[in-house]
């Protein structure tokens, strides 16, 4: 039986809860040298693509900027273009909101980078329904939560129409004539829908891969339906084997209703990792990394989010508060505002802290900073292979805890073992005729998106 091939993606850790800022080996989160090192390491490891998150606003807690965001959050599109310029094969994928962007502008920007990179761009489509982020755009909570996927679906469909608005023959081969564009082969896109009213024409011909690979991360029923209809990759949170198998079956089971096949969608959960010479060494290192990932400020903010109020004087190295939670709402994290839910959660945390003798910071680290893969290189390679062969995932989006060198140990120690197992590539595919790098979609083994029937096709059919 043919072994399934593992897909690997590198998530630039940057500004998130996995980053250990205090480590002596930690570098800048925003200098281009960090992005360049990370992208080149991922390409050296033959990864499919580098993945970037997007922060439209610095996170706050109690009206203050959270300590995870003090390094800054640069704009994704600029970084994608820069990383593509220092690599040849690897894809570059960015998270960009369908709530606080407009289809023509974003489609044009993505098409530009996709064309310049030779077809190596992907778009992680996210929705942003809340007033906190909306305040940056003078929109507040203008979009009801239940409408966010309606807008996203219309956004993606309209973007594809813009990317498809140039026919294949729109760029003429006879450049000596001085006339490059046949205006009859470039079509305006006229769209009127509940979210957008647009009359426009795409400003570029199709890129070598058609258009950017569409990635999506929604997990709700609406998000899963959106993914089955639109996404080519799902950035999943189900890294546990059993939960991953269930999610895999559920989402891929929705594809036939959307007229799609199983190989048209990849499911790639996020995964953290700690590597040791032995499994015992890695387990000890994992505890130390998890504690370092949980700063005293983060621990206090996490508890305050559950308690629904500020807790002045809370000692991160002391016990949980004796008072009961309230109904307030904190900015950091998604916590239910129902008092009974908060009280029940507080009781669970108190029970665990008492049973294991944990301080506030130790408890928060235990609750939030566990790692997906912990062990020797052999153990981690075997676990990744088990998930892929068992259809719990098609691979993983790996999130190291150090910037920019945290991916290097995985590339040096785990990738060769996956190659020995025959489940990971030993070189990038290149065009058999020219030897040039291929597109991201081809690297991922995804089908080329079909072109809609254009006027040329219709004229040929009529003839």
Automatic annotation (TrEMBL):
Region annotated Disordered, chain positions: 313-335, 426-463
GO molecular-function terms, A-Z: monooxygenase activity; oxidoreductase activity, acting on paired donors, with incorporation or reduction of molecular oxygen
InterPro entries linked: Diverse_substr_monoxygenases, Luciferase-like_dom, Luciferase-like_sf, NTA_MOA
Residues where FMN binds: 95, 149, 220
SUPFAM superfamilies from the UniProt entry: Bacterial luciferase-like
NCBIfam families: FMN_nitrolo
Keywords associated with the record: Flavoprotein, FMN, Monooxygenase, Oxidoreductase
Bias-annotated ranges (Basic and acidic residues): 452-463
Protein name: F420-dependent methylene-tetrahydromethanopterin reductase
Domain Luciferase-like: residue ranges: 23-389
Family: Belongs to the NtaA/SnaA/DszA monooxygenase family.
Superkingdom of source: Bacteria
């Amino acid at each position: 039986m043919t072994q399934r091939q593992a897909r690997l993606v590198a998530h630039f850790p940057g500004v998130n809860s996995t980053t250990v800022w205090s480590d002596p080996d930690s570098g800048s989160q925003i200098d281009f040298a960090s992005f360049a090192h990370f992208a080149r390491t991922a390409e050296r490891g033959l990864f499919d693509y580098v993945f970037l998150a997007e922060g439209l606003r610095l996170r706050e807690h109690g009206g203050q900027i959270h300590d995870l965001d003090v390094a800054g959050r640069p704009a994704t599109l600029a970084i994608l273009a820069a990383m593509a310029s220092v690599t040849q094969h690897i894809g570059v994928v960015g998270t960009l909101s369908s709530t606080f962007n407009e289809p023509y502008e974003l489609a044009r920007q993505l098409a530009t980078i996709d064309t310049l990179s030779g077809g190596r761009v992907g778009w992680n489509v996210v929705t942003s329904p809340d007033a906190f982020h909306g305040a940056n755009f003078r929109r507040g909570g203008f979009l009801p939560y239940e409408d966010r996927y309606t807008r996203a679906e219309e956004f993606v469909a309209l973007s594809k129409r813009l990317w498809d608005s140039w026919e294949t023959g729109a760029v003429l081969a006879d450049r000596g004539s001085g006339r490059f564009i046949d205006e009859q082969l470039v079509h305006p896109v006229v769209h009127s829908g509940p979210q957008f009213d647009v009359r426009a024409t795409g400003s570029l011909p199709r890129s070598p891969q058609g258009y950017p690979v569409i990635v999506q991360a929604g997990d709700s029923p609406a998000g899963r339906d959106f993914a089955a209809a639109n996404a080519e990759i799902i950035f999943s949170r189900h890294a546990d084997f059993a939960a991953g198998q269930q999610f895999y079956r559920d989402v891929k089971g929705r594809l036939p209703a959307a007229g799609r096949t199983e190989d048209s969608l990849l499911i790639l959960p996020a995964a953290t990792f700690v590597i040791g010479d032995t499994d015992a060494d890695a387990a000890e290192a994992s505890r130390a990394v998890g504690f370092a990932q949980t700063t005293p400020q983060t621990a206090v903010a996490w508890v305050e989010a559950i308690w629904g109020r500020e807790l002045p004087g809370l000692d991160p190295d002391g016990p949980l508060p004796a008072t009961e939670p309230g109904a307030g709402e904190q900015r950091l994290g998604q916590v239910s505002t129902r008092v009974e839910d908060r009280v029940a959660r507080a009781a669970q945390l108190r029970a665990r802290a008492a049973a294991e003798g944990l301080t506030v910071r130790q408890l928060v680290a235990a609750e939030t900073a566990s790692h997906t893969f912990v062990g020797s290189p052999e153990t981690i390679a075997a676990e990744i292979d088990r998930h892929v062969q068992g259809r719990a995932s098609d691979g993983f989006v790996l999130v190291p805890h150090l910037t920019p060198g945290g991916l290097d140990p995985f590339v040096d120690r785990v990738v060769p073992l996956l190659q020995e197992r025959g489940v990971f590539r030993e070189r990038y595919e290149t065009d058999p005729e020219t030897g040039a790098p291929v597109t991201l979609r081809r690297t991922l083994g995804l089908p080329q998106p079909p072109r809609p029937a254009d006027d040329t096709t219709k004229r040929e059919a009529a003839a």
